[in-house]
Amino acid sequence: MRIKKFFNNNRKQILILFLFFSFILLISPVFAEESLTLPDPLNHRDIPTLVTDIIKYVLRMVGVLALAMFIYGGVIWMTSGGSEKIL
Protein backbone atom coordinates (compact mmCIF):
# COMPACT_ATOMS: atom_id res chain seq x y z
CA MET A 1 0.00 0.00 0.00
CA ARG A 2 2.80 2.43 0.86
CA ILE A 3 4.59 1.68 -2.39
CA LYS A 4 1.48 2.47 -4.41
CA LYS A 5 1.12 5.80 -2.59
CA PHE A 6 4.77 6.58 -3.19
CA PHE A 7 4.52 5.91 -6.92
CA ASN A 8 1.23 7.77 -7.25
CA ASN A 9 2.55 10.83 -5.39
CA ASN A 10 5.96 10.91 -7.07
CA ARG A 11 5.09 9.76 -10.59
CA LYS A 12 6.44 12.92 -12.22
CA GLN A 13 9.78 12.82 -10.38
CA ILE A 14 10.24 9.12 -11.16
CA LEU A 15 9.54 9.72 -14.85
CA ILE A 16 12.04 12.60 -14.95
CA LEU A 17 14.73 10.48 -13.24
CA PHE A 18 14.05 7.59 -15.60
CA LEU A 19 14.36 9.83 -18.66
CA PHE A 20 17.51 11.46 -17.31
CA PHE A 21 19.28 8.15 -16.68
CA SER A 22 18.08 6.78 -20.02
CA PHE A 23 19.55 9.82 -21.73
CA ILE A 24 22.85 9.33 -19.89
CA LEU A 25 22.96 5.67 -20.93
CA LEU A 26 22.19 6.55 -24.53
CA ILE A 27 24.77 9.32 -24.79
CA SER A 28 27.60 7.59 -22.88
CA PRO A 29 28.77 5.42 -25.84
CA VAL A 30 29.54 8.63 -27.74
CA PHE A 31 32.23 9.50 -25.20
CA ALA A 32 33.35 5.91 -24.57
CA GLU A 33 35.62 5.66 -27.63
CA GLU A 34 38.31 7.80 -26.00
CA SER A 35 38.17 6.02 -22.67
CA LEU A 36 38.36 2.44 -23.97
CA THR A 37 42.14 2.31 -23.57
CA LEU A 38 42.93 1.96 -19.89
CA PRO A 39 46.43 2.56 -18.56
CA ASP A 40 48.39 -0.53 -17.59
CA PRO A 41 48.40 -0.64 -13.76
CA LEU A 42 51.40 -3.00 -13.73
CA ASN A 43 53.52 -0.79 -16.03
CA HIS A 44 54.32 -3.77 -18.26
CA ARG A 45 55.58 -5.86 -15.33
CA ASP A 46 54.59 -9.39 -14.49
CA ILE A 47 53.02 -10.37 -11.16
CA PRO A 48 56.16 -11.90 -9.52
CA THR A 49 58.14 -8.71 -10.23
CA LEU A 50 55.34 -6.59 -8.77
CA VAL A 51 55.18 -8.74 -5.61
CA THR A 52 58.98 -8.54 -5.29
CA ASP A 53 58.85 -4.73 -5.56
CA ILE A 54 56.14 -4.54 -2.89
CA ILE A 55 58.11 -6.78 -0.53
CA LYS A 56 61.25 -4.69 -1.08
CA TYR A 57 59.34 -1.49 -0.30
CA VAL A 58 57.83 -2.94 2.89
CA LEU A 59 61.20 -4.25 4.08
CA ARG A 60 62.77 -0.85 3.39
CA MET A 61 60.14 0.85 5.56
CA VAL A 62 60.59 -1.73 8.34
CA GLY A 63 64.35 -1.18 8.18
CA VAL A 64 63.97 2.58 8.48
CA LEU A 65 61.62 2.17 11.46
CA ALA A 66 64.00 -0.31 13.13
CA LEU A 67 66.94 2.08 12.67
CA ALA A 68 64.90 4.94 14.15
CA MET A 69 63.96 2.78 17.16
CA PHE A 70 67.60 1.75 17.70
CA ILE A 71 68.71 5.39 17.60
CA TYR A 72 65.89 6.43 19.95
CA GLY A 73 66.71 3.62 22.39
CA GLY A 74 70.41 4.50 22.29
CA VAL A 75 69.74 8.16 23.00
CA ILE A 76 67.44 7.28 25.92
CA TRP A 77 70.00 4.82 27.30
CA MET A 78 72.90 7.27 26.99
CA THR A 79 70.98 10.17 28.57
CA SER A 80 69.45 8.16 31.44
CA GLY A 81 72.48 8.74 33.65
CA GLY A 82 72.19 5.27 35.22
CA SER A 83 68.59 5.77 36.31
CA GLU A 84 66.31 2.79 35.74
CA LYS A 85 63.20 4.96 35.57
CA ILE A 86 61.44 4.64 32.21
CA LEU A 87 60.08 7.79 30.57
- Radius of gyration (CA) equals 31 Å
On the 0 to 100 scale, the average pLDDT is 80
Q: State the total count of DSSP E strands.
A: 0
Give unreliable regions as ranges.
Answer: none
Residue share in helices?
Answer: over 70%
| Quaternary organisation of the protein chains | single chain
Summarize this structure as a short list of keywords or feature phrases.
elongated; mainly alpha; 87 residues; 2 domains; 3 helices; single chain
Question: What report would you give on this structure?
Answer:
- With 87 residues, the chain is mainly alpha-helical.
- It has helices at residues 2-9, 11-32, 47-79.
- The chain is elongated.
Brief summary:
This protein has 87 residues and is mostly helical. Helix content is 72%, strand content 0%. The N and C termini lie far apart (68 Å).
Question: What is the element layout, followed by pairings?
Answer:
Elements: H1 2-9, H2 11-32, H3 47-79
